[in-house]
Amino acid sequence: MKNEFRMVIVLTLIITIAGCLLAYTYVSTQDDIQRNLENSMRTALLSVVEGVESYENIALDEKTSVLKAKDSNGNVIGYGVMITGGGFQGDIKLMVGFDKDASAVLGIEVLENVETPGLGNRIIEDWFKKQFEGAIPPIEVLKGQKPQNRSQIEAITGATISSKSVANIVNNAHKALETYLGSGGGGESAGRGEEEILEYFEKRWPEKRLIKKGTYYVINDKSGQSISYGIFSEGVEGGDTVKIFMTVSKNFSKIEDIVIMNGSEVSVDKEKLDELQKRLIGESLPLSSSNVEVVTGATIIEDGVVSAVNKGFEALKKELK
Amino acid sequence: MAQNSRKPGYELVKGFFKENPVLVQLLGICSVLAVSNTVVNSISMGVSVLFVLFFSSLVIGLIKDLIPNEVRIPAYIVVIATFVTVADLFLKAKFPDISKALGAYIPLIVVNCIILARQEAFTKKNKLLPSILDAIGMGTGYIITILLMGIIREILGFGSIFGVKIFGSWFKPILVMILPPGAFLTLAMLIGFMNFITRKSEEKKL
Description:
The complex is a heterodimer. Helices cover about 40% and strands about 25% of the residues of chain A. Chain A has 6 helices and 12 strands. Chain A has a 5-stranded antiparallel beta sheet with strand order 1-2-3-4-5, with helices on both faces. A 5-stranded antiparallel beta sheet of chain A has the order 8-9-10-11-12, sandwiched between helices. In chain A, a hairpin with a 4-residue loop joins β3 (about 75-85) and β4 (about 90-100). Chain A is globular. Mean pLDDT of chain A is about 80; it is low at about 185-190. Chain B is mostly helical. Helices cover about 65% and strands about 0% of the residues of chain B. The two termini of chain B are about 25 Å apart. Chain B has one domain. The relative contact order of chain B is 0.19. Chain B has a two-stranded antiparallel sheet. The interface of A and B includes residues 22 and 33 of A.
């Protein structure tokens, strides 16, 4: 009995001391480790987007983060997506640079890879990475053929899987960026667009719950109390379709939140859309074109949005009567 | 093995060649095979193992009489794991590139047989000073072996040493040398060479 008691005491003591030592080491190295991470991220971003003065890092999930690259005036000049995906032997971590419309790849940088040295590992070679400059996702990998257009790249001889993995990760980075920016990626994929909007909404207001009820959504707070309603709607102006998702306060008086989905025909700067969205939040319903302040350069889409909002409002009223 | 009678100097040098942990005892081969593809990786791995081995032997040598025999293995493992984690965090903070190259092999030093084997076979039965000398000797033996592997594999597989190209453009690297088969081939050659020398010197004595 005495011996057992001693065992417990000795082990506890050793573990306590070890724990203290580890805690001390951990705390004193964290700053450096964090700085190294920042540095490698910054270097990679600078090599894929030109003229970056500062950046904003938004982590989307464990494996993906979006870096908003800004120039000296604070204008967004492009995006970097840091993303990890599967390769031939293990994970590949890439920094993918996109232009500010998120339409073309500016460049890629391989941060980490454990591909076969001399074969798959050649994804770090310049000629391979250069193929992605100016490429339009989704990117397709050709084997033993010269690329015909800007969405194709040539595979590394003997390392087709590694080449395809990189292209795949770049395509995923593009999807992640589009989702983050809230653009549905074209009218033909309305279903996917809706899902993305719902995801976006859930990320933005994690404490609220969306429950689908036929054509509209009931939004509950944490305790299950319904607090507002949401609906998808479309408006047409000058032949352009504008899709939106909006939430309306329980007494139907105000727009609580609104997300404008970029239809395929509408091409307006992301910032202008953001500005428009911001102005619409809190507006009283129904909207008239005249009481929404015009955002320069976005007049047409604005009219489309107003008609979409009002249509959605009418539909919601009808549903809930 | 009653090693108490031996001279301290012998405890230090025996690990270099005569009882080399990798080439003679065939311990810790996993990491030797995995990260010996370049000289820099080899040195970093070797120094990390030496560090962990030294401090583990030091601490275990100091506290071994307090530890009840039944729980000695968990106690040893806690001590070893602590130093491994310290080494891992230190590399991550100060040498991020090396830390990336060595990947999972630093945390895996915990289960590297050399470390636990030395505690069980030597530190447990000997005084503090011989134990420390033994740790330094064994750690150095590990470094010598992994460094030899690194030099051979980097020269043949990359045509470089410390990352600097040493051949002209005529040299075509032998790719297999930096791949796993190259590691097995090199280690086998070294062990064969070691056995050859040992046999020769024994024949001389006779």
